[in-house]
Amino acid sequence: MIDHVRDLASVRDATERLLAAAAALDNVSMAEPSRLPGWTRGHVLAHVARNADALVNVLAGRPMYVSGEARDADIERDAPRAMEVQLADLRESAARFQEEGDRPADWSRTVELRNGVKDAAANVPFRRWIEVELHHVDLGVGYELEDLSAEFTQREINFLVNRFRNHPGLPAVDIRQDDGRVLATGAVEGVTLEQIEQGHERTADVTVSGRQADLLGWLAGRRDGAALTVGGGPLPALPPL
């Protein structure tokens, strides 16, 4: 059961950690490359701020972005700003998201995100939590996937496993976790999401196992999977997020 109130609190805590990390930067380090190809740290923080406003739009029933081109242009516009401007924008946009999340609403309603993706409103706070945590790691300032909470890591693994279910070109993949559970992704016709989240044993084309942080890193496109143990074939190339 999704607890959007608890997730909003987790977003608030994660945002405070990100703000503290950003406050330790200066204009020179803000302009240095992040871990995301082609993006500086300024790009990352600009994206996190604009994502907060985009998710306010989602919760308010408006289009998430005017267009993909406008989204990209906003990030490019905001990336080179001075550190104190970045920090203020990050804080103020996060506050707008929390304010929208605190409004009385029907959290069971369906909302629309980018590219026509639909989801329950109650899942939006977790989506924001993902943005804040993973992009904090992307800054490359000492916050690593290993620093993420066990709850967040497992939920994000489950989220991505579901996202890649029956994705064209992916074989049947079993992800064997160190807690003994097996999560099925790739070609999994006939396997329900509930079975995936509870662990589902089956014959797969490829098995992948490793530490939770390394599994998350591979699924989220943050690590190449070299630290994982792979059986049955090569490690599948996952589609971009």
Protein model, in words:
The chain contains nine helices and six strands, in the order H-H-H-H-H-E-E-H-H-E-E-H-E-H-E. It is of the alpha+beta class and 241 residues long. The protein has a four-stranded mixed beta sheet. A two-stranded antiparallel sheet has the order 1-2. Helix 1 packs antiparallel against helix 5 and helix 3 crosses helix 4. The longest helix has 20 residues.
- How much of the sequence is in beta strands? 5-15%
Give the averaged pLDDT, no decimals.
Answer: 94
Radius of gyration: 18 Å
Number of distinct beta strands = 6
Helix content: 40-55%
DSSP helix count? Answer: 9
Largest sheet: 4 strands, mixed
Class computed from helices, strands and strand pairing: alpha+beta
Distance between the termini: 25 Å
What is the 3D shape?
A: globular
The succession of helices and strands, N to C, reads: HHHHHEEHHEEHEHE
Q: Could you list some keywords that capture this structure?
A:
four-stranded mixed beta sheet, 241 residues, two-stranded antiparallel sheet
Layout of helices and strands, plus pairs?
Elements: H1 4-23, H2 27-30, H3 41-59, H4 68-78, H5 83-101, E1 110-112, E2 118-120, H6 124-138, H7 150-163, E3 172-176, E4 182-186, H8 193-198, E5 206-209, H9 212-219, E6 229-231
Parallel strand pairs: 3-5
Antiparallel strand pairs: 1-2, 3-4, 5-6
Helix pairs in contact: 1-5, 1-6, 3-4, 3-5, 3-6, 7-9
